[in-house]
Write a structure and sequence with these properties.
Layout: H1 2-41, E1 44-56, E2 59-70, H2 73-93, E3 101-103, E4 107-110, E5 126-136, H3 139-146, H4 150-154, E6 159-160, E7 169-171, H5 175-200, E8 204-213, E9 217-220, E10 228-242
Antiparallel strand pairs: 1-10, 2-5, 2-6, 2-7, 3-5, 4-5, 8-10, 9-10
Amino acid sequence: MKDYVVKERMLPAIVLGICFVVGIAIGGQKLADGIVQFKSLNRSVVVKGLSEQEVPADTAIWPIRFKEANNKLNSLINSIDEKNQQVIVFLTAKGFSREDISINPPSITDNEANNYVDSDKIRYRYTADSVVTVYTRDVARVRAAMKDLGELGRQGIAFSTDDYNARTEFLFTGLNNLKPKMIEEATQKAREVAEKFAKDSKSKLGKIKSARQGVFQINDRDRNTPYIKRVRVISTVEYYLVD
């Protein structure tokens, strides 16, 4: 009789325990399903799209640099002024306006003041660099005039072309006009890559999860044509993938 009473009293506890275990099992399964759904919901692919264009430079900075030497400082300065005027005459004859032309102050070196130079081997005490610069939007005119620099050489002006500081710069300043179209093209190409990936993985392309626009780069097309620029941008887009 006592055993029956004990078993009767234990039955609710046993039933409660069984329900608890079953509840944990069901809850665990739901939790597992939730994790799988969460991971599935966050499946994504990161793709890049490139947009690239070649454009002509629209601005030229043309420094004409020449050297002068003399043992007398006043004579050196007078010679620099005279040759600066010769350069200006040459440039205006090529069609540049005086507003396009600027003259930098000359850089003068007293060679006898250099402790690392043997004074007995110094031919000229003073040497100087002078730079006359053309800044213009007329790139074609600069390119044409550069071919005639030999005229200055025949006038006794020893200009430098190999010096890094004397290199002509060709610039492109119209980037803002290109940006909208190039960003659209880069984004479209990124989507095409993403759609191909989704198709190959038997998925469907979802919404954009994130997008990053790359930095626009402007470079010379090659070292021989610095007046032609290559503009490029890469857009990085992350898409959701759905089953």
